[in-house]
Amino acid sequence: MDDGTESDFDLLAASLRADTTDLVAYVEALAVKLEGALPGRAHIARGGGGLFGRGRKHVEQIEIDLGESRYLLDQRRHRGAPQTARQKVVRGIALSTDPLDLQQWLDGLARDLAAQAQAGAQGRQAIERLIG
Predict the structure, then answer these.
(1) Distance between CA 114 and CA 69 in Å, rounded?
(2) pLDDT digits (tens, 9 = 90+) for 74-106
(3) I need a labelling partner for 10 at 20 to 30 A (CA). Which of 51, 94, 104, 109 fits?
(4) Could you give the CA distance from residue 111 to residue 109 in angstroms, rounded to a whole number?
(5) Is 94 within 8 Å of 70 (Cβ atoms)?
(6) Rg of the chain (C-alpha set)
């Protein structure tokens, strides 16, 4: 990795980490950031909302498609930290799924985004939207 990619990764990783003490609020904020930065590649599933869907919906799942990697976050049935994983994808088919803790998931996502930014302008724009 050259110095530019390493510094992109460091900035992006710090931006994605932020404050994870309130995980529900953190996942909500992360979902908003990812939706804005990665249109068409970030898929957010929201649910809840109480009886008849009148309450505030919250993020249940996040899926980020980055070509050969797909990052998954699921907090539907889990108290505490959400379940996170990275899938290896070939021609749209998941060949393997590796469970990761939240910090590994964030670091992997940041690293893959930084690598894609190095390869193209669209990735660079996504990073710029994420880190402001």
Answers:
(1) 13
(2) 988 756 678 999 999 998 889 999 999 988 999
(3) 94
(4) 5
(5) yes
(6) 15
C-alpha distance from residue 10 to each of 7, 58, 98 (Å):
5, 29, 23
Largest alpha-carbon pair distance within the chain?
52
Confirm if 26 and 73 have CB atoms less than 8 A apart.
Answer: no
- Judged against a pLDDT cut of 50, whether residue 50 lies above it is answered with yes
For residue 128, give Cα distances in angstroms to 26, 37, 70, 91, 124.
20, 8, 21, 28, 6
For residues 19 and 14, give the distance between their C-alpha atoms in angstroms, rounded to a whole number: 10
The amino acid occupying position 65 is D
- Give the H/E segment covering residue 25: helix 23-37
